[in-house]
Specification:
About 15% of the residues lie in helices and about 40% in strands. A four-stranded antiparallel sheet has the order 3-4-5-6. Strands 1-2 form a two-stranded antiparallel sheet. The N terminus is likely disordered.
């Protein structure tokens, strides 16, 4: 049951990146989560939460000329994580999924 609760929390936080009002937690009600600069309009495709204070979200950029989006949640705010382009990639590439084994070890895949 803990895993489901964490997923629901991350889903709410991820929706906040799109500018929606989302549940912060069952105890505090609803809150708006502001996305990091340069990520508004990004299309998120995958998310993963290790805990309430360590979660990841990945996806495609808001514009074709921007890099894919990788974000980390620290329990208070989202921060952007640099995403280098792999060799031979096109400007339209996006990250599709993410998983993590610890706060310092996360992996993302894309196309």
């Amino acid at each position: 049951m803990t895993h489901v609760a964490r997923w629901c929390t991350l889903a709410g936080i991820t929706a906040g990146l799109l500018g929606l009002t989302v549940p912060a937690s069952a105890a505090t009600g609803w809150a708006v989560v502001t996305p990091p600069a340069g990520t508004a309009g990004a299309e998120l495709a995958g998310s993963y939460a290790l805990s309430d204070t360590d979660a990841w979200a990945v996806g495609g950029p808001a514009t074709a000329s921007a890099a894919p989006v990788a974000l980390n949640w620290n329990g208070t705010a989202w921060s952007s994580v640099p995403t280098p382009a792999p060799s031979g990639s096109t400007p339209e590439w996006a990250l599709k999924s993410v998983a993590a084994s610890s706060a310092s070890d996360a992996w993302a895949v894309g196309e």
